[in-house]
Specification:
The chain has 136 residues and is mainly alpha-helical. It is built from four helices and two strands; from the N terminus they run αααββα.
């Protein structure tokens, strides 16, 4: 049973189709990486990242969706950088302090993590308090 203050989140059919296409591109990119099919892997970075950005833009008015979709954009960016670093051969280049070229992928991974931490530690509790005050 739904409560009076439960929110229903629906996705318009064209958005859902775009999200499904996004999953297809993402899988093709990762298959290209796994099988070391460089042209496929690199080619699929662009539509995968583009659709992730479009999904993020379209859901920007819903804070939870914005946070999670931004994290996905950073995840795909990190993942794509890591893949390309392996394909081009700078993943093992020493940068100093024991870090290698692939360790630079940590920057977008951490950016996505920080966005989610902010959402769960700051934004979501703020929204819960606002709902409690509004319900009073």
């Amino acid at each position: 049973m739904s409560q009076p203050n439960d929110h229903l989140y629906t996705i318009p059919a064209p958005y859902r189709r775009m999200e499904n296409l996004h999953i297809l591109f993402w899988l093709l990119k990762d298959i290209g990486w796994c099988m070391v099919w460089k042209p496929l892997g690199i080619l699929m970075v662009f539509p995968t990242l583009l659709i992730a950005v479009l999904i993020t833009w379209r859901t920007r008015s819903i804070k939870a969706e914005l946070a999670h979709n931004l994290a996905i954009v950073f995840w795909i960016s990190a993942n794509s950088y890591w893949m390309i670093s392996e394909f081009v051969g700078f993943d093992t280049v020493q940068l100093g302090g024991g870090a290698t070229g692939k360790h630079l992928a940590l920057l977008p991974f951490l950016a996505g993590l920080l966005i989610l931490l902010y959402y769960y530690l700051v934004q979501k509790p703020r929204e819960a308090r606002a709902e409690t005050v509004a319900a009073s």
